[in-house]
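for the writeup, i need someone to sanity check this before i put it in the appendix. the sequnce is what the collaborator sent (i think, or maybe the updated version? ugh). structure was predicted straight from it, no edits. if anything looks off just tell me and ill rerun, i have time this weekend
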Amino acid sequence: MALSTTSNFAKPDDAFRAIVEAHRGLSDGQSADFDAALVLILANHIGDIDILREAIALAKRQVIDAQQQQQQQ
C-alpha cells in the first residue's frame, strides 16, 4: 500500500474543522499532548511502518518548506 496524499474525506473541511474544534479549551501544553496522542492513535490504525515512515518524511519536508518560505518573505 502506498501513502495516500489525496483527500479521502467526502467533506475535507469538516475533518479539518473537527481537529481544530478538538483543540478548543485546551492549554498550549494540552493541545500539544492532544496532537501527540492523536498521531499515535492514527499511526497505530495505519499499522504499516513503511507508510508511517513515508508520512513522517512528508510531514517533516512540508514543515521545513513552509518555514523556509516564511523566511524568504
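The mean pLDDT is 96. The first helix runs from residue 12 to 22.
thx in advance!!
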